[in-house]
């Protein structure tokens, strides 16, 4: 089981003000501690989003489909820097990102662990080769948002809790970001 033992996460308050640091596993134990995170959605020119299937060795949510990548910024690391670092580490490419929104969520993720995150959500466009790191990612696919929503509805057990929360609570923000990408490459608008 991959726990990244010793890795520190940034503890924050409900306004994303730093209040301390904690070892990553401790921040996810005993109901969790609110900590900073980033989530990334990458879209292509066809209007599809890039999903990853988390590697089976991950310390939680192993084998589940999720958004392009996620991580926890290191102490003194800006969220966008962390997002781009993790995109390269997990999916094997870099592309410009822009922050779309922030939100707080709390959910059990199995193995007695809880994600309680102040999440900075980033969006970008990429149309090149994907080279996932097999330690982090067991598979990947490009899917339309409509197909993703239909599959999440019929098989929610195949998806990470945070992706389901993002799709349920922030779908319009995700559609707006997708429209910003497709507006530059086609006349397709997602409503």
Automatic annotation (TrEMBL):
Keywords: Cytoplasm, Isomerase, Isoprene biosynthesis, Magnesium, Manganese, Metal-binding. It comes from the Archaea. Residues 33-165 form the Nudix hydrolase domain. It is an enzyme of class 5 (isomerase). GO terms for cellular component: cytoplasm. The keyword Magnesium applies. InterPro entries: Idi_bact, IsopentenylPP_isomerase_typ1, NUDIX_hydrolase-like_dom_sf, NUDIX_hydrolase_dom. GO terms for biological process: dimethylallyl diphosphate biosynthetic process; isopentenyl diphosphate biosynthetic process. Pathway: Isoprenoid biosynthesis; dimethylallyl diphosphate biosynthesis; dimethylallyl diphosphate from isopentenyl diphosphate: step 1/1. The active site is at residues 70, 117. GO terms for molecular function: isopentenyl-diphosphate delta-isomerase activity; metal ion binding. Its EC number is 5.3.3.2. Belongs to the IPP isomerase type 1 family. PANTHER family: ISOPENTENYL-DIPHOSPHATE DELTA-ISOMERASE (PTHR10885). This is isopentenyl-diphosphate Delta-isomerase. The lineage of its organism: Archaea, Candidatus Marsarchaeota, Candidatus Marsarchaeota group 2.
């Amino acid at each position: 089981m991959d726990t990244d033992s010793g890795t520190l996460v940034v503890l924050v308050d409900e306004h994303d003000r730093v209040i301390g640091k904690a070892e990553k596993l401790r921040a996810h134990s005993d109901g969790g501690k609110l900590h900073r995170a980033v989530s990334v959605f990458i879209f292509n020119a066809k209007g599809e989003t890039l999903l990853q299937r988390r590697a089976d060795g991950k310390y939680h949510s192993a084998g589940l489909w999720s958004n392009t990548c996620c991580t926890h910024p290191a102490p003194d690391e800006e969220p966008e820097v962390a997002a781009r670092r993790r995109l390269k580490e997990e999916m094997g490419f870099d592309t410009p990102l822009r922050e779309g929104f922030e939100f707080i969520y709390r959910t059990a993720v199995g193995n007695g662990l809880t994600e309680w995150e102040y999440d900075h959500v980033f969006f970008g466009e990429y149309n090149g080769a994907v080279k996932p790191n097999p330690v982090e990612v067991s598979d990947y696919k490009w899917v339309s948002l409509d197909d993703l929503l239909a599959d999440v509805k019929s098989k929610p057990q195949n998806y990470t809790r945070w992706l389901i929360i993002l799709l349920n609570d922030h779908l319009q923000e995700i559609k707006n970001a997708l429209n910003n990408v497709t507006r530059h490459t086609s006349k397709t608008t997602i409503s």
